[in-house]
Amino acid sequence: MTSVAFIGLGHMGAPMAANLVKAGLTVRVFDLVPETIKSLTDLGAIASSSACGAAAGADVVITMLPAGKHVRSLYLGESGGGEGKGLIDVVAKGTLLIDCSTIDAQSAQVVAKFAVEKELEFVDAPVSGGTAGAAAGTLTFICGGSDTGFEQAKEVLSNMGANIFHAGGAGAGQVAKICNNMLLSVLMVGTSESLQMGIDHGLDPKVLSEIMKVSSGGNWTLNKYNPCPDVMESVPSSNGYQGGFMVDLMVKDLGLSQEAALLSNSSTPMGALARSLYVNHARQGNGTRDFSSIFEQFANVQQIKNKG
Amino acid sequence: MTSVAFIGLGHMGAPMAANLVKAGLTVRVFDLVPETIKSLTDLGAIASSSACGAAAGADVVITMLPAGKHVRSLYLGESGGGEGKGLIDVVAKGTLLIDCSTIDAQSAQVVAKFAVEKELEFVDAPVSGGTAGAAAGTLTFICGGSDTGFEQAKEVLSNMGANIFHAGGAGAGQVAKICNNMLLSVLMVGTSESLQMGIDHGLDPKVLSEIMKVSSGGNWTLNKYNPCPDVMESVPSSNGYQGGFMVDLMVKDLGLSQEAALLSNSSTPMGALARSLYVNHARQGNGTRDFSSIFEQFANVQQIKNKG
Amino acid sequence: MTSVAFIGLGHMGAPMAANLVKAGLTVRVFDLVPETIKSLTDLGAIASSSACGAAAGADVVITMLPAGKHVRSLYLGESGGGEGKGLIDVVAKGTLLIDCSTIDAQSAQVVAKFAVEKELEFVDAPVSGGTAGAAAGTLTFICGGSDTGFEQAKEVLSNMGANIFHAGGAGAGQVAKICNNMLLSVLMVGTSESLQMGIDHGLDPKVLSEIMKVSSGGNWTLNKYNPCPDVMESVPSSNGYQGGFMVDLMVKDLGLSQEAALLSNSSTPMGALARSLYVNHARQGNGTRDFSSIFEQFANVQQIKNKG
Amino acid sequence: MTSVAFIGLGHMGAPMAANLVKAGLTVRVFDLVPETIKSLTDLGAIASSSACGAAAGADVVITMLPAGKHVRSLYLGESGGGEGKGLIDVVAKGTLLIDCSTIDAQSAQVVAKFAVEKELEFVDAPVSGGTAGAAAGTLTFICGGSDTGFEQAKEVLSNMGANIFHAGGAGAGQVAKICNNMLLSVLMVGTSESLQMGIDHGLDPKVLSEIMKVSSGGNWTLNKYNPCPDVMESVPSSNGYQGGFMVDLMVKDLGLSQEAALLSNSSTPMGALARSLYVNHARQGNGTRDFSSIFEQFANVQQIKNKG
């Protein structure tokens, strides 16, 4: 039976690890915040007192951390330079390493390089689907790594997700994810301004949404996540923009996308503009609201007040 | 049997009128260019020597013209002021007027206002679907007008199109269409820059497209009209950006959308940016190429040359 | 002695007319709001009961109105079509017509065309300099019209302004003004975001302003109108963004600039973006604040609160 | 007499070092390209066979290198981690270190931190003014560092430049420079699109430039570097956009500015848009032309061809 070490039990990591336990795997867990460990051991996970302790002896190590620097220092040791004392130094040859964090592609590539030198498979596998998808086990994983690594990772990840893609070699999972999320931000802003312009001309946003959804303006936000209040049920826009995917997290992902654009000298006028609009929105105090609240940047304050 | 007057037999109008003839309707046609009339009379349409001649006595008048000024002067008379000598002065009470041109909403509303005063129904019904959809009878019509007018128009339009939407009152069809096409331009530019950034990082655009298509970046351009060469078959990007929907026409529609944004004092940062990028693209000599060629603004000239 | 008719006595028009009276000219005034006339007659102006009454017999007619439609209907008659009953029908041949309103260039050109047919000189002469400049007689006039018309206009305008430019033929004054004001909005936004980025990195905005002012980032806003609070004295940013040039007026001018860009099929990515940012700003309730308050879109709410 | 080590003798470094020699200082020079050393020794400089060789015993070390990674590895040793073998390990306490490279602020701050630990003054002093200013000794230096460091640096730098600013603490020189250059790019794009819109409406760009220069659109590009051909003499736009400041270098500086914006979570919509437009321009084959050639992105190809 596969034994898994799961490190990083935040809002996403905890329910993901829970699904591994439920699937019958042996799961050793660690987090810097002890309370989060308790919820997992209640389900049957085994507590570890350190990340390296959890990883030693595991067949698969899964990490879910905030940023590239945390991933580098955990896998490669404090300085991130591969000089020992990292996870790659304590696991056995052949161990499969899967990092589910959303981080910069460079960090993923550096860790992969050092892992390969130790004869370890490393797969970057950032997720999308939010906490709801994590709980339901319906996440999407976008993976980067070798064919072998991907096939092995797919088996484990299928306990936590519904769609598992292979984007390419090391780091490709991260690149594909931020390409997607950059595009998502553009869809969200573009859909918001189009709907609001229709409203400004007296159109019913429900009718306009129905038309565009099945026309050449059709996109994911119209299908699943309409940003205009009261057009769809059970989406954040119809619930005061609570829940969902926070503006601050979109700002983070757009930061990663712009970092990637700088590295490759790419031109991303729409993505860069979306980032600026989202930063303005966050700076105005909307950082913890759902990212579809960008719609309010285009609405009239008067309209919003009348709603409220 | 319904008798229809069809005025304006250009690339779109001619195949649309042909479908009405094929459906067994009596169709009187007129165009300023006599040659275009011939192709329709060969199919069974009746030639008229003037627009008013075609319209007099018809149950339904359909127009397909280049711009708002043509629509206003045809329906309302030379000065566009409703002082007589326009189509609305020669048709019988109860005649249904359908304008399928893509024009500014204001012009549509002005014509509708004068038509209503003469007890005529006027429906603005701009189309999407291109010349291929016009020939196949699978166009989408987005209509503005009264419920009665819409229901009547729907019956006639169903001979030429597959989807017929009612966006709202007079002018709403035009507003909905330009909202949609503005959003389309944003999808196209956003998808182009995202795909190119992936390519710049070594990803295969086919793989990246497949991933984003089923993720939150999913949109019409990924489904039907991928702008990156050789990702999809039978789309303009895989055919040197020939055919399809011309850059110049997208510039026209984006001009209409910005005109609408000015009238309603709306903010459309993405749509306005898309317009500027498309104008630059057109000015560089790409006006008659397909609008997905905006992808080349992001690609490296070197990459493009190597393709060629 | 020159006799002048001055029509439109708003915040700008009233002090402008007052300077003509002070210069010793015979000034007949009219405005739809009777109260505004009183302040001028107190200074020595002669009240008229209608615009045409003021204009009849005058050597020079000066108008200062809100928008193109007002200018067209005043000069050309209600319908704006030149069919009589406009100012051009009541003044004597050779009368000099000067419109100081900021309006669309097309309207200016239409009025000029009809005026020329009546052997009248028409000069479009939009102003900049604000109410302070109007009171002090230090306005800038940017004129469009014939050389003869310009030379005549210059003599009269010199009683109200310090700089009088000849931009070209009919309408050129309007075009030059909106080109300038579009560029001004870009300078203001660009300077704001640059200063805030410096602040975010710990720089003193005074020091950074001093450096950029004499470097290649130097521009009018750094010299005269720094948007960052407490960098310069006696500017709106150091006075809670009160006074100065209202956001709503900048939105109007940016609307005119985009209207012009649509007519000439020009690409103005920066100007279009500035317009969207200013519309968002206005919609958030900042319409009556000074236009340098756009700086707050980039600042942290927290920083702003700490100031307050 | 002050002894200076000058490391990095490229297009900028060589003429800068030459001015130090001409000023009578003892100058030891080093570059990885031996040919560049020869030109300096002809003037009286002393050749060194390594950077450390040049620096050992010098009172002042000046470096002029391409990017942050070169600066870090030269001062701090290969790994950039301060573990010895860098310039800071071979110079005497009290040596003044001046880095004139344009690099990211973080690198400047890291080097400064390690230098201070060794009781060395480190000043980041990026320059503007181009190769012409380097030759003429009229460069502008924007410095970051302690007051003491700045005062000492000012004395040496005054042999090479006309304006020497103190922007703040370590790294502040770099931040101020990229704030300025980001703003410069916005001025250049905004001025280009405004001038072209005027041209599209029939205005003479010389007349329009004269008007905006003394109005609220006034900025450095109108004063010194008009992007429209044949408006000013002796600027790149009147010389086929040859010479001046290359597009590729502007792309580099805009990359640094966006990197800084990401670090401080700043919103820079105009700067980000300028970067995308410049990257597109570079990718179309204009990388080695002067940065004012962005004007051609807005002009009509037809207009450009007629010129040529």
UniProtKB/TrEMBL annotation, chains A, B, C, D:
<feature type="domain" description="6-phosphogluconate dehydrogenase NADP-binding">
    <location>
        <begin position="4"/>
        <end position="168"/>
    </location>
</feature>
<dbReference type="GO" id="GO:0050661">
    <property type="term" value="F:NADP binding"/>
</dbReference>
<feature type="domain" description="3-hydroxyisobutyrate dehydrogenase-like NAD-binding">
    <location>
        <begin position="171"/>
        <end position="295"/>
    </location>
</feature>
<feature type="active site">
    <location>
        <position position="177"/>
    </location>
</feature>
<dbReference type="GO" id="GO:0006574">
    <property type="term" value="P:L-valine catabolic process"/>
</dbReference>
<protein>
    <recommendedName>
        <fullName>3-hydroxyisobutyrate dehydrogenase</fullName>
        <ecNumber>1.1.1.31</ecNumber>
    </recommendedName>
</protein>
<keyword id="KW-0520">NAD</keyword>
<keyword id="KW-0101">Branched-chain amino acid catabolism</keyword>
<dbReference type="InterPro" id="IPR015815">
    <property type="entry name" value="HIBADH-related"/>
</dbReference>
<dbReference type="InterPro" id="IPR036291">
    <property type="entry name" value="NAD(P)-bd_dom_sf"/>
</dbReference>
<dbReference type="Pfam" id="PF03446">
    <property type="entry name" value="NAD_binding_2"/>
</dbReference>
<keyword id="KW-0560">Oxidoreductase</keyword>
<dbReference type="Pfam" id="PF14833">
    <property type="entry name" value="NAD_binding_11"/>
</dbReference>
<dbReference type="InterPro" id="IPR002204">
    <property type="entry name" value="3-OH-isobutyrate_DH-rel_CS"/>
</dbReference>
<dbReference type="InterPro" id="IPR008927">
    <property type="entry name" value="6-PGluconate_DH-like_C_sf"/>
</dbReference>
<dbReference type="InterPro" id="IPR011548">
    <property type="entry name" value="HIBADH"/>
</dbReference>
<comment type="similarity">
    <text>Belongs to the HIBADH-related family.</text>
</comment>
<dbReference type="GO" id="GO:0008442">
    <property type="term" value="F:3-hydroxyisobutyrate dehydrogenase activity"/>
</dbReference>
<comment type="pathway">
    <text>Amino-acid degradation; L-valine degradation.</text>
</comment>
<dbReference type="InterPro" id="IPR029154">
    <property type="entry name" value="HIBADH-like_NADP-bd"/>
</dbReference>
<dbReference type="InterPro" id="IPR006115">
    <property type="entry name" value="6PGDH_NADP-bd"/>
</dbReference>
<dbReference type="GO" id="GO:0051287">
    <property type="term" value="F:NAD binding"/>
</dbReference>
<dbReference type="InterPro" id="IPR013328">
    <property type="entry name" value="6PGD_dom2"/>
</dbReference>
